[in-house]
Backbone:
């Protein structure tokens, strides 16, 4: 136990180690942030196409969305990352951070789409019918009635997806990128601290703190969205 | 040809869901000021009939004329403003307050300004005895309150016809009376009404005509006293024996 605290002292008093950790952490955050952004936007588009009423214009887009989510959800993330790195973007000098962002973004989109789709479908059909019977347009019905109700169901699950992406980005160390996970491994290696336990413990704390913060934010959003239910309980 | 104006004319209306033929050729006419009660066994297509009229369900074939105009996919939104619908499960919009439920359509469709709409909504709420519920959310209301608000929501646009699909079937007995009173009042004021209901006493009292649907066809129709006292077909006799 003594040596554990000694090692912690060593890590935090060695500027290079701190620097490496922060660098790794920053890369993890960058990849996660942009991947989540792409995932949510693309996921929302896929969900909208998927839940739209059937029409001849949408037959092919709907089919593409189905195939896309099936392939993404049916294959391992690590394999998708490899394919992006070694097949699709096997171009010398192409920035690996962009490849990683795309890989995680395209992956997350399939899961986000499923979450958003589920949220939209969970809204009672009677809500849409009420709007239709009043002569409102489909667009008004979506934005004024369906979306606000769907969001309540979507936010918690989308929060989970954000957390999943952040943790999953740790596999970029498999393609040699220097993220938080890789930093921990590097600091613990033979030519540095020669002990893995402390750097990995500290990396775990970084992940935990980030995810705790996101959970907290998601809970706050959920709470403010539940306004129309809370008044009901008065 | 006729003295009274025809609000609604339906020719050979058919509707099927997949292979399930639900409406098998309905011809029907509704004149201004008429109050038609639709009766029939469960699953006979009563709801589908009402829902085809305002295209909640798109008819498979047949024609619907509203105020002399053929209803199509293109003009249905305009038509719907003139035919209010009241649902069995109220369908108040959950994320909006009562006031916003009432003014959403008139304001969005630019039929009234927000001020005018709010004023009218307040009058109607006062009229049904719920003036203090304007800022309440639907989840805090009882079934009877929800349905009466749903009815005045349909009235906000001053429709020519009101379509009711079993408006009291999801209510407890006490609330049923309140809702029927409100519908009765609209009837007394000359509102044109089509209603599916299982309240036989009420049907007999407010109907100017009864229409009986079985297996997606109108098999008997007539003035309520004759219909209830001297049914023509065996099917209706059998039905009335069960429900009366
Ligand atoms: N949206 C729908 N999709 C498929 N079948 C439906 C749909 N709506 C109604 N049906 C079918 O149509 C038939 C008649 O239903 P409905 O019009 O609700 O009868 P009623 O209101 O007289 O009880 C039933 O067999 C029902 O299952
Ligand atoms: Mg029905």
Residues:
């Amino acid at each position: 136990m003594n040596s554990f605290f000694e090692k912690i002292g060593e890590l935090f008093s060695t500027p290079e180690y701190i620097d490496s950790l922060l660098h790794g952490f920053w890369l993890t955050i960058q990849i996660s942030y942009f991947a989540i952004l792409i995932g949510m936007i693309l996921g929302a588009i896929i969900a909208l196409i998927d839940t739209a009423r059937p029409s001849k214009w949408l037959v092919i887009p709907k089919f593409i969305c189905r195939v896309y989510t099936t392939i993404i959800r049916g294959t391992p993330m690590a394999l998708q990352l490899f394919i992006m790195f070694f097949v699709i973007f096997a171009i010398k000098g192409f920035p690996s951070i962009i490849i990683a962002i795309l890989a995680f973004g395209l992956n997350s989109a399939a899961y986000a789409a499923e979450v958003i789709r589920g949220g939209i479908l969970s809204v009672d059909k009677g809500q849409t019918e009420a709007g239709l019977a009043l002569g409102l347009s489909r667009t008004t019905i979506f934005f004024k009635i369906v979306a606000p109700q769907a969001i309540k169901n979507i936010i918690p699950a989308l929060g989970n997806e954000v957390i999943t992406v952040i943790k999953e980005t740790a596999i970029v160390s498999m393609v040699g990128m220097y993220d938080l996970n890789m930093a921990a491994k590097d600091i613990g290696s033979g030519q540095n601290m020669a002990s893995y336990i402390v750097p990995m413990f500290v990396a775990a704390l970084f992940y935990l703190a980030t995810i705790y913060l996101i959970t907290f934010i998601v809970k706050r959003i959920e709470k403010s969205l539940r306004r129309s239910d809370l008044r009901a309980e008065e | 040809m006729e003295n009274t104006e025809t609000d609604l004319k339906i020719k050979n209306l058919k509707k099927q869901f997949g292979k399930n033929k639900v409406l098998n050729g309905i011809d029907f006419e509704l004149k201004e000021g008429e109050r038609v009660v639709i009766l029939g066994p469960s699953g006979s297509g009563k709801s589908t009939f009402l829902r085809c009229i305002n295209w909640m369900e798109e008819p498979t074939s047949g024609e619907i004329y509203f105020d002399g105009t053929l209803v199509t996919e293109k003009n249905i939104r305009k038509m719907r403003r003139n035919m209010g619908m009241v649902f069995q499960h109220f369908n108040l919009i959950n994320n909006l307050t009562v006031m916003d439920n009432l003014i959403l359509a008139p304001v969005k469709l630019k039929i009234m300004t927000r001020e005018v709409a709010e004023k009218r909504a307040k009058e109607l709420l006062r009229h049904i005895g719920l003036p203090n519920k304007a800022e309440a959310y639907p989840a805090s209301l009882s079934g009877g309150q929800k349905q009466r608000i749903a009815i005045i929501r349909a009235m906000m646009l001053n429709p020519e016809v009101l379509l009711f699909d079993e408006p009291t079937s999801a209510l407890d007995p006490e609330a049923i009376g309140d809702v029927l009173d409100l519908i009765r009042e609209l009837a007394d004021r000359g509102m044109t009404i089509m209603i599916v209901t299982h309240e036989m006493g009420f049907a007999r009292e407010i109907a100017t005509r009864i229409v009986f649907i079985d297996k997606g066809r109108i098999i008997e129709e007539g003035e309520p006293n004759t219909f209830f006292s001297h049914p023509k077909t065996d099917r209706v006799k059998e039905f009335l024996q069960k429900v009366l």
Observations:
- The first helix of chain B runs from residue 46 to 53.
- The radius of gyration of chain B is 18 Å.
- The CA atoms of residues 145 and 217 of chain B lie 34 Å apart.
- The first strand of chain B starts at residue 6 and ends at 17.
